[in-house]
Amino acid sequence: MSDQVKYVLDEAQIPKAWYNLNADFPKPMPAVLHPGTHQPIGPSDLEPLFPMDLILQEVSTERYIEIPEPVRDVFRMWRPAPLIRARRLEKLLDTPAKIYFKYEGVSPAGSHKPNTAVPQAWYNKEAGIKRLSTETGAGQWGSSLAFAGSLFGIDVTVFQVRVSYDQKPYRRALMETYGARCVASPSNETEAGRAVLAKDPNSPGSLGMAISEAVEIAAKDPAVKYALGSVLNHVMLHQTIIGEETIRQFELANDDPDVVIGCAGGGSNFAGLCFPYLGLQLRGGRSRRFIAVEPAACPTLTRGKYAYDFGDTAHLTPLMKMHTLGSTFMPPGFHAGGLRYHGMGAMVSHAYELGLIEARSYQQRGCFEAGVQFARCEGIVPAPESTHAVRCAIDEALRCKAEGKAETIVFNLSGHGHFDMQAYINFFEGKLVDLDYDEAALAQSLAGLPSIAA
Amino acid sequence: MSDQVKYVLDEAQIPKAWYNLNADFPKPMPAVLHPGTHQPIGPSDLEPLFPMDLILQEVSTERYIEIPEPVRDVFRMWRPAPLIRARRLEKLLDTPAKIYFKYEGVSPAGSHKPNTAVPQAWYNKEAGIKRLSTETGAGQWGSSLAFAGSLFGIDVTVFQVRVSYDQKPYRRALMETYGARCVASPSNETEAGRAVLAKDPNSPGSLGMAISEAVEIAAKDPAVKYALGSVLNHVMLHQTIIGEETIRQFELANDDPDVVIGCAGGGSNFAGLCFPYLGLQLRGGRSRRFIAVEPAACPTLTRGKYAYDFGDTAHLTPLMKMHTLGSTFMPPGFHAGGLRYHGMGAMVSHAYELGLIEARSYQQRGCFEAGVQFARCEGIVPAPESTHAVRCAIDEALRCKAEGKAETIVFNLSGHGHFDMQAYINFFEGKLVDLDYDEAALAQSLAGLPSIAA
């Protein structure tokens, strides 16, 4: 066993292909349906929103899809991302377990999101697109697409959820530094936004609303395409570069993970780390535990229904079968904006339904406690979203201690918390409390799911 | 010539020794004087403030000083820091020059400061010290010592300049996440602070005042030592790990810098990159240009006097011969808090006086313009301090273009700007203006320098 701290690959070792779990699922994924007709959609139905290369990735069942050289060339700015052994945390916990984390916060925007922002921007550029429209909640995705747009000369408009726009001016400044235009959502720039504002001029916004606005802009203007930072199959695909690198790094470490952990909002950072390992297992390799960690205040996998639902509040998107709390569900205002989405990506949902992965939910105070503990051992202050994965990794290491097992645990530290320090301030001041969603509102939201024969 | 983007060394290649320019200066440095007697001080005079190992480094003329293994072990968390080729910036500028930057923002605290915070905390721990006192302006140093303290079980108290304490709550939250206690300076916790507050209860504070407070705490309590993040010889020594790594990385790149650039407040990040190269030159190697870049609003090297002066406003520190604007000089409130110090480190001053290095000053608007240009090419948002180095590197690359010279330029990107986004917001809103210091006040400050025979 090596006693290195960091496992760093040379830039020549950046993976040359993404891994597509759709090649290995034991049962194919349910079809995506048209929002009006409820009939399966084809690639052409998505053409107003995405360039054809991305649509073909969305429906592909090829096992490996080549990463274009210009995209790999951009990745060389920060990839391969390090795999780091959390030795000080292990020592503090006095656990026989070995804890590793894949650190995606080394990207310019500070999270795993550029892994898909860069190829999405590049494929759009190749298709002649000069303008992209998107939404952002916590701001990680918006700043990543802004960064990618700046590299390829694409104008990016970001509908930033109003509450995040107001509370996170630094995140907005980061997007503007990269040259993007930020609009607080709901806005007066779209019908969807105006409809919400007419009812509630002080609406704090939601990710579902912001998606409606960004999609509407793209749907109405052929010169504008839409980009989504999670949920969709091609996003999961792009994020598998995380797990592909991690597999090589564990070979260097002469070790192998027994437990693989990621936080899950739309599911892309979890999928990115897990799917390559899950693929090995489905092709006859050893079995591992895969744990998706979600917030107790927005427990999509653990409390949602596996059903067809819309991706947005205005019901402009196609219908996908996924674990959902219903598109009208409004989670309470907890501090991990990236995990406040009502649905889970269809691929992660499918894997969960097939019993291939586990899910677990945590309240936020315990997550921030874990985040502070981690920062004091390993130096890196995790993003609020990522603290969910840290909490789970610590709990698994403590389980190993109780059971006397020397398991190897790896989690995805999907981003740093430099733009989320207000959450830490609230935590230290005792203002950060655990939050429960409203059971009655959830029941009502689920009752409103579109009625579609399974 | 390699066409790699990043030159990344394995953690086994972290340098094993720091380089001490005091071994190679063609003329020895002027003595440090006692603030009361004006006689040269000896190691024992510094014992109330520092552990003996650091004092011996302060006065050492050994060429190489071994980096203790436990310190190298911590460095493995993020070092070696990458040397990155700014190919997109080169292309944008259409210059024949090659531009590289050494990126120190990969450290947990986001700058080069942990390079000295970690050994300082470790030497103190080895000496049995459990409490450290320090000051911080921009917050880079305070968060770095807080981080180092968390690793070695040392309680850290940080006197944070009032204006920074109020304007940068996230930087403070970072220090508290690492477990440090932050006190707004001037404070009621020291005589020096109370004296200032008695005259001006709303004093915005200054680095010189905060140093007085931190030094006073340590001088009065034998259980507390003091730590300084720049200026002193042992700090310059610790930062040479930057240049030692860079030399190895340029060998990998099969290239060699003609121009070496760093921003300079107290001088430590500049010294860290430059001194190992300067040492090679002084021992018969090729000559290079070394450019220290300072703010026009606090132009210590370019407009200061080379004279004995105090390091703090309350005149508690020993007297060092340095380029100084006078310890009572109060620079205008520009956005690079780390460059607002009245003096320059004695080693950098000595090198400048000997004609071994150049100095240049810039106004802040041009620096932020360069910072935004850099971010849009290379993804990383530079700290306001570091934008000075970026500005200079761009200007040198444009000079190369005008002269048709394919020189190799390297600059130290000493930190990222994630905790300084308010400065970028002000820049985008047009509120960030160029600032000049008050000539009359400078003359008065210089007239008040202690009268000591050179």
From TrEMBL, chains A, B:
GO terms for molecular function: L-serine hydro-lyase (adding indole, L-tryptophan-forming) activity; pyridoxal phosphate binding; tryptophan synthase activity. It catalyses: (1S,2R)-1-C-(indol-3-yl)glycerol 3-phosphate + L-serine = D-glyceraldehyde 3-phosphate + L-tryptophan + H2O. InterPro entries: Trp_synth_b-like (IPR006316), Trp_synth_b_CS (IPR006653), Trp_synth_beta/beta-like (IPR023026), TrpB-like_PALP (IPR001926), TrpB-like_PALP_sf (IPR036052). Residues 78-415 form the Tryptophan synthase beta chain-like PALP domain. Keywords: Amino-acid biosynthesis, Aromatic amino acid biosynthesis, Lyase, Pyridoxal phosphate, Tryptophan biosynthesis. Its EC number is 4.2.1.20. Tetramer of two alpha and two beta chains. The beta subunit is responsible for the synthesis of L-tryptophan from indole and L-serine. This is tryptophan synthase. The lineage of its organism: Bacteria, Pseudomonadati, Pseudomonadota, Alphaproteobacteria, Hyphomicrobiales.
